[in-house]
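Board notes, transcribed. Complex of a protein with zinc ion.
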Amino acid sequence: MIIFGTRGVKSTLAQGNFVCPQCATSEAYKHKKVTKFFTLYFIPVIPLGRMGEYVECQRCRGTFVTRVLEYDPDSARNEFQSIYEKAMRHTMAMIVLADGEIDDNELKVVLEIINKFGHKDMTMGELVAYIFEVQRNPENIDTYLRKVTPSLNEHGKEMIIKCAIAVAAADGQVDQSEILSIKEMATAMEMSAMHLKGILSEMTEKQTSFSTN
Ligand SMILES: [Zn+2]
């Protein structure tokens, strides 16, 4: 009697380190493939084709789709950073435009903030061009922030509000229109009124010429 059948045989295609979704740390992995073999007396003799591939964490032994190897924590962080920086820049431009005039001191503060937090240095000329661009294509602050809020963490939201207040105060006083815009921003980012009040009072302690009319 001849005993034959098929069996999946695992082999390692590659190995290295990856960020294991289960361990959430960098761990050794083995990228394995499973090949279906025709077996004779339980011995795999003829490969019949690939059954599948997977990535196995050598620490927790969890198995994952090969796509996990593409996850790059640095680029994920960069993506967050760029959304955050873009949101910060955009909201500051909106605050500059909120009181109807583009003030030099406001521009200086915006540029200072962008170049302090951002990774891409901006010149005053580029900033002015950017603000005109925002002015030409006005988008409601609420609409804009609702789009980006899911990508922001609490710290990011707070920084956006703080930067907006700093810009609003740059021309010597915070106008009613600017206060309204900041309140609108906080609401759009689902920040509580109490939280906003806390940030405002924390910042106004440092601003002597803060006026709410
Ligand atoms: Zn693991």
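The mean pLDDT is 84. The domain at 74-204 is CATH 1.10.3680.10 (TerB-like).
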